[in-house]
Write a structure and sequence with these properties.
It contains 6 helices and 5 strands, in the order ααβαβαβααββ. It is α/β, with parallel strands linked by helices and 183 residues long. It has one domain: Beta-carbonic Anhydrase, Chain A (3-Layer(aba) Sandwich), CATH 3.40.1050. Bound molecules: zinc ion. The site of zinc ion has 7 residues, from loops.
Length: 183
């Protein structure tokens, strides 16, 4: 999947799918969801006491891929499943306020970040006259990137539990997880 710095998504792709905007269809789907919904009576603490940090990739259905059910886990997702300061913020709240103690990190094959470089920030600056404060966090070796993410979690001074941190690469073609050894 190519990423660009400008709005180059083809026009008319929405209309090809059906009437209304995609958000309209989501709202419609929610009305059906809510009509069949019964209050599960849970509190906010994840039942399996686990937080999953994963890429936002559309081909990764975390709950289905990991056999997770509603209420089981925290899911924290961003481009690449990168352990940024904001992910550490979420993990800190997850552990200290909501009782999780295991962390699972999931990157995947064919990630969009593999085709980017930090040059992306420079291109943005050229286009809009402002350089983003964030790093792109692009990578070439997905295994190394998972190891780096594990290191960032394990060495965070804010987290209570860093003894059960495991990292995986999800294969978007087979649906299978491959575990990455920590270094
Ligand atoms: Zn990805």
């Amino acid at each position: 999947m190519a990423m660009t710095t400008s709005a180059s998504v083809p026009a008319g792709s929405e209309a090809a799918i059906g009437g209304g905007s995609v958000t309209d269809r989501l709202v419609e789907a929610n009305a059906q969801y809510a009509s069949a919904f019964t209050d599960p009576g849970m509190d906010a603490r994840p039942v399996q006491r686990v937080a999953v940090v994963a890429c936002m990739d559309a081909r990764l259905d975390l709950h289905a891929a990991l056999g997770l059910r509603l209420g089981d886990c925290h899911t924290i997702r961003n481009a690449g499943g990168v352990v940024t300061d904001d992910v550490i913020r979420s993990l800190t709240i997850s552990q200290r306020a909501l009782g999780t103690r295991s962390v699972v990190l999931i990157h995947h094959t064919g990630c969009g970040l593999e085709s980017l470089t930090e040059e992306f920030r420079h291109e943005l600056e050229m286009e809009i006259g402002q350089r983003p404060s964030w790093a792109v966090e692009s990578f070439r070796d997905v295994d190394q990137d998972v190891r780096q993410s594990m290191r960032r979690v394990r060495t965070s001074p804010f987290l209570l539990h860093t003894d059960d941190v495991r990292g995986f690469v999800f294969d978007v073609r087979t649906g299978r997880l491959r575990e990455i050894d920590a270094d």
